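Morning, I've got a small favour to ask if you have a moment. Here's the protein in full, and shout if anything looks odd to you:
***
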Amino acid sequence: MKPLLKLISTPIGNLNDLSERAIESFKEGTFFLAEDTRELFKLLDLMGIDKKSKFVESFNDHDQAKVKSLVDKYFDKESLNIVSDAGSPVLSDPAYPLVKEWVNRGGRVESIPGPSAVTVALEVSAMAPIPFSFHGFLPRKSGAIKDYIGKLRSKETHIFFESPHRIEGTLELISKEFSSYEVCVVRELTKKFEQHLRFKATDWDLVKEDLVQKGEFVILLRNEGGDQNSPDDISNAELTKLAEKYMAKPSPKGLAKILSEITGENVNDIYKKVSFSKK
């Protein structure tokens, strides 16, 4: 039989959410890759499982050379288990490249599902769940955050992770630059001090005193209004600068950027239309 790769989801805060299938996998498994070996050992102790009977190795990056060496090392074993500190080992954690390499070599993959901060946050947000996109962590620099959010599709719920020491600055930026967005911020999901804040981006100043800047954060954004920008939001100087840049070197991408600034429509969507019209 082909070797099996097991993806074991762990609780995101409440240990009572650990499934029977996950417990059975921890008991039966011998070889484990863990995001943090210390966290896995703690979990094994809580389950009363002898950690000395387990072979545990750290795996917490996307380095392709390491991925291949790990698959080489464990592919002749009956099974290999991957565990993250919390939630799914694939969503925003490094298991994906290893899963892909395992499948490419003909191995089997099995998921032992459990709670995910992505779906739990979506459920409690009171935002429309379809369609939604998960983007992982936001960029670190404010300019990059602005560019990234500026390209999001409207009428879709967008989900991000954010760190406690950046959360206030990120929400401040969103309130100033993306006034049409509905925002939901959740923290410490499934834990004792779980918190939900739902507000219009323009109302950030009214709710920010209620935000406790500790723990794990998820930000959900949704723009039901459609256009993020309107012609009145764009200065003549900005339009002139874009037009001059376009005239110096005309291209569909340059034209798409100008039209995006005017209409608020996604740059990539406009680019596809412009490119198609030229064919």
Remarks:
- Confidence is low (pLDDT under 50) at residues 227-232.
